[in-house]
Amino acid sequence: MKLLMLNGSPRGTGSNTRILFEQLLAGMRSVDADLEAEVMYLRNIRDTGNHVQSVVDADMVLLGFPLYTDGMPGIVKYFIDALHPNDLGGKPLGFLVQSGFPEARHSRPVARYLARLSMRLNARHVGTLIRGGVEGIQLQPAGMTKRLFQRFFALGASLARDGQFDEKLVRKLAKPETLNPAARLFLQTDASHFYWDMKLKENNAFDQRFDQPYAPGTGERKEET
């Protein structure tokens, strides 16, 4: 079988999507040692034509990306638009939506869209994996990611064995659906902001963290003095 894995993260090879895809692929290969897999990065938009053709040529397609403000990255939208008017003829199509949000509820609207997209492309939807709290796994020791990686490995094995993701494992992976009261209280503390503040500082955006560029009355550009 020829598997195509499309990574829709703007971070490309440095993405969390790549790490989770690797675990899925390892699980699939534990069942199908002859699996032929190709990974493409949608951030290379000049290669969109090749990405679309590879979808047509593949036997199974997996599309993964991070959730940005409850939606998909622009490069993923661009790729989906480029798929029209292809008919996938019942080809297996699955998705991975990962995010920094701990709770799955943020990803539910885009997951419903992806299931609908499968129908419109005439593909067989093999499932959508939702996983929150992923941001930071590159910094975590192996002991903290072991359980997460085991679940992705098992989901990959179920896909290769049964032709779809194990629904019971999908539900476990998505938890929690919403935050419990203790987690909500923690998010109100300064400690909960440590990682995100670090990232803002790395990108020279820390001083602008309270900006409201889309708030009423803030659209006018100030004259430089």
Descriptive notes:
The protein is an alpha/beta fold. It has helices at 16-31, 48-57, 74-83, 108-120, 142-162, 167-174, 181-186, 194-202; strands at 2-7, 36-41, 60-66, 92-98, 124-131. The protein contains eight helices and five strands. A five-stranded parallel β-sheet has the order 2-1-3-4-5, sandwiched between helices. Helix 4 links the parallel strand 4 and strand 5 (124-131). Helix 1 crosses helix 5. The radius of gyration is 19 Å and the shape is globular. The relative contact order is 0.13.
Short description:
With about 220 residues, the chain is an alpha/beta fold. The chain has 2 domains: about 1-175, Flavodoxin domain (Rossmann fold); about 180-205, no CATH class. It is built from 8 helices and 5 strands, in the order βαβαβαβαβαααα.
Mean pLDDT: 90
Annotated CATH homologous superfamily of the largest domain: Flavodoxin domain
Distance between the termini: 63 Å
Overall shape: globular
Query: Structural class, judged by helices and strands?
Result: alpha/beta
Low-confidence stretches: none
User: How many structural domains in the coordinates?
Assistant: 2
